[in-house]
Amino acid sequence: MRPDVAGAAAHLRRPSGRSLVAAVTLLAVVTALGVTTVLPRPTVAGVLGLVVVAVCLAALYQTTRSESFTPVAVTFWAFVTVWVGFAPLLQIRDRRLPWPDLPLDQDYVSAQVILLFAVVAYWAGNTRRLPAPRPNTSPRSRVTIEKALTVTATAAVLAVVCLPMTGGLVVRFTSRDDLQRAITEAGLKSRQDLALLGLLSTFPAAVAAVALVLCLLCWRSRNFVGPKARSILLGTTAVAVLLNVIYNNPLSANRFAAFGVMLAAGLAIVPFERQRWRTLFSLGMLTGLAVLYPLANLFRNARSRGNLRLGLDAYYTWDFDGFQQTVNAVYHARVHGHTWGHHLVSALLFWVPRSWWEGKAIPAGNAVAAGRGYEFQNLALPFWAETYLEFAFVGVVVLFFFYGRLARRLDRALAATPAGLGTALTVTFAAFQIGLLRGPLGAQIPFVGAAFAVLVVGVLALPDPGWRLTRPPPPVDHGSTAAAPTGPKEMAHND
């Protein structure tokens, strides 16, 4: 047998062995979870939850072992596995949900079916094969030092102007309660209209996050021209880091924004080309969501620190109320009917003041919590639950199928070189996707939507100032991917 054929055969045999080990491991994990969480008190909802965990773990393994790094898919599967996969198994077994209310046992199965079909539809859309990414040859869509410098300078100006109007610098390093109190005293927060608050607080934080991503992508591409450009990029990156320490630190910022910025920074600077690093990333996501996510309440306020629970006890707290809120959404839709896009359109048009749009919906999580009579209504609402509330069951299947396709396209765009808008969008979406999945969209989209808008404008719309700080990409030989020359003309041209 020829050496190349023998090598190919060995290459095909190796993944089969790994797949067998992975299948046995997955079966052992799911069996252990079934014995410890479902078997003591068997229910249909518990069995469906176990199926969700099995699907998520299988998909997470598949995406982790794919031919290239897929951060959007990995963060999706890791979050769903922990937040609404494992946690509900404990809650259903012990009949102990995070929020005390009248039980809605009759809607448990419906909630699990919605989630199961959402993840299956996402997986179906995400496994669709796409062509290899083309080299990024468009100067307009490239990430350059000039663009990173412009966005960072914009973020710095916004900080200088807006910080004094939103409580000052010191309050950003106290607590979220202190920041909200300062904002309220400044007259920026009312029940009717939060547009001014978003403009003065949320928008500068989003611009700072985008500035950091662009700077780190420049370092990853090493696209600076000479020592002067490198020094300019170093100073720009330092400013971007400082702005994020001010605006997106875990003491006063929403934890999904704070840890999303940290995750975006890691995804932007680390290429994750080796399989070892991709495996560690997936395991790190699972561990972080299972352990560090509830520990983030240490930064929130004194009350949260006093009520902090560790270990398995943390999975009965409001940090893992995704299953209960899905149940509440099923109840809300049955009693009040579906809303047919009202909350989604209101979330996408977050920048429109309520004084201009009297019928603008509040975040869907607040509406669902109010319908259940909760005193505290600023709660999560999983993306699939909000989709069901808006568009019924068929809407969940259709939307999550195309969501999976979108994630696939973004993950493929990450491999394009040099770094461009697609790379930046993938890094940003993968990092902040967890907040969108937790929901509700009306509470999460203002920050994430502003970041996406700034990213698109900053990369596509900013003119080239001609500073020549960024190294031009190497020329692309469009014939290099063709087959090997077979005739005299092709060989002569190749010589």
Automatic annotation (TrEMBL):
Region (Disordered): 470-495
Transmembrane segments annotated in the record for this chain: 20-38, 44-61, 68-89, 109-127, 148-174, 194-219, 231-247, 253-272, 279-299, 388-406, 413-435, 441-462
Domain of life of the organism encoding this protein: Bacteria
Alphabetic keyword roster: Membrane, Transmembrane, Transmembrane helix
Designated name of the protein: O-antigen ligase
Organism: Micromonospora purpureochromogenes
Source lineage: Bacteria, Bacillati, Actinomycetota, Actinomycetes, Micromonosporales
